[in-house]
Amino acid sequence: MPTMKDVARHAGVSTATVSHVLNGTRTVQPETSERVRIAIANLQYETNGTARNLRVRTTSTFALVVPDLSNPFFPEVAVVIQQEAARAGYDVVIYSIDVPHGESADLFEHYLRAIRRKRYDAVIYAETLLVTPTAHQQLIDSGTPIILIGGTPHPQADRVYIDNYAAVRDVMAYLVGKGHRTIAHITGAAGMASSSARQQGYRDGLLAAGIVPNPEFEVAGSFLYEGGYLGMQRLLERTPRPSAVFAANDETALGAMCACVDAHVSVPDEVAIVGFDDIALAANVRPALTTVYHGQREIGREAIRLAVSAHTQRTPEGGEEQKQTVIVPHRLIVRDSG
Q1: 180-204: b or e for each residue (b if 16 or more CB lie within 10 Å)?
Q2: Cβ neighbours of residue 34 under 8 Å, at least 6 residues apart?
Q3: Residues whose CB falls within 8 Å of the CB of residue 47, separated by 6 or more in sequence, listed in order
Q4: What confidence tens digit (pLDDT) does each residue in 148-168 have?
Q5: Which side of the chain, N or C, has fewer Cβ within a 10 Å radius?
Q6: What is the fold of 1-57?
Q7: Which residues neighbour 14 within 8 Å (Cβ) at sequence distance 6 or greater?
Q8: Which helix (DSSP H) or strand (DSSP E) does residue 332 occupy?
Q9: CATH of domain 164-293
Q10: What's the pLDDT tens digit per position in 292-323?
Q11: pTM of the entire structure?
């Protein structure tokens, strides 16, 4: 069975450094800490976890809170987070808030109690609906380091996100460059920061091209397939009908495409459709969906890096290192739908 000395030798550090990483008793550089945790995982080194956890209040476990596991984007991020956490020597417990199906407030309160009780080493918290105005502070007050994925920034939490506004401006520049002048938008769920940023990017993209936004071309969606289907039905009734539609996410775009099929409207010949997220299904539907790659892999990796850093760099007195903000790159993926 491997020993702490074996881990230290494998990572190229002292046994004291290995102990500090395991116990959180002293600040260790993130790169060194990650090297130690990789060595622990490779050697399958095991400590007396129960005794150590009681002594230093560490669990080697992160909590991941996501809005909705039925949205393919979040499972894709969760898979990367679990893989990266395992490489760093951590487990991950996943909580789904069930947005936008109506259970978010009650489920969040339930999960918050679990977070307080289990004392996770860090909580990775993706933007959620309804609970967002109070959730950040409630999580901060739990005393657990918080890493935000998107949403509203908080001065006491690290954050990793994509620039939704800039990404949609790229979408609009692309559609305008293709000759579209009547471009519609099916929005995301009301009240979410990403919905607002994408909607503003849509409007400003039109203005930058000298096109006055038409309120009739903005219809409410929900980030769900059904919202995209119903929203597209409404847009197909408009006169004139839009020549292109930017959907707030890929699920919405897929619903919109199916509404066009049912109405015998050709995509992209009669209506171009662009989504957002680049979920795995986007490349496999026909026509393949033009969309924005949301940075699932980069977000997952950075979230774990920030979580490990937040956990290992906490001082014995409870002080914290300077909070970090990371913007991951996006890119427009041009396929056949638009």
Answers
A1: beebbbbbbbeebbbbebbbebbbe
A2: 88, 305, 308
A3: 22
A4: 999 888 888 999 999 999 999
A5: N
A6: 434 Repressor (Amino-terminal Domain) (1.10.260)
A7: 8
A8: strand 331-333
A9: 3.40.50.2300
A10: 999 999 999 999 999 999 988 764 444 456 79
A11: 0.79
